Amino acid sequence: MMPDWIKHELGRLKNTATWSWQGWLTTWRNEKSLRQWGVVNLISIILACLIDLDGGERALLIALGLLILVAELFNTAIEENVDYVSTERDPRAGRAKDAASAAVAVTAIAGGLAWVVILIG
Ligand SMILES: Nc1ncnc2c1ncn2[C@@H]1O[C@H](COP(=O)(O)OP(=O)(O)OP(=O)(O)O)[C@@H](O)[C@H]1O
Asked: Is 72 a catalytic residue?
């Protein structure tokens, strides 16, 4: 017989997994930029597997690619929140959205730089 606390924790884990999957699916359907970065990731993962790289290089390229998707998810979360709080124009709302957008750009630059350094070096 499974203890109650384990049942409780498993239930929480199942909810968290369900909500995360829901968040991924909704963002994928609504955000073109997430789909575009998804395609870039697919190409990057295929190339990283085909080109002769060592395990560490492959892991770095794949992890940085996935981090762009993470940044894109946070970017969407922030945009949705700003628009939920108010649709009025306010410099703080603009700065929040721009900072979130910059996070995606910086992560993408990190991934691009890693590819350049690994291919050149
Ligand atoms: N509430 C706001 N107040 C001030 N500036 C904003 C606000 N919302 C968005 N901006 C500015 O506009 C940029 C684009 O934001 P966003 O992609 O949400 O588009 P939008 O201007 O809200 O219009 P739409 O949603 O129709 O594309 C932001 O990066 C920010 O600089």
From this structure: yes
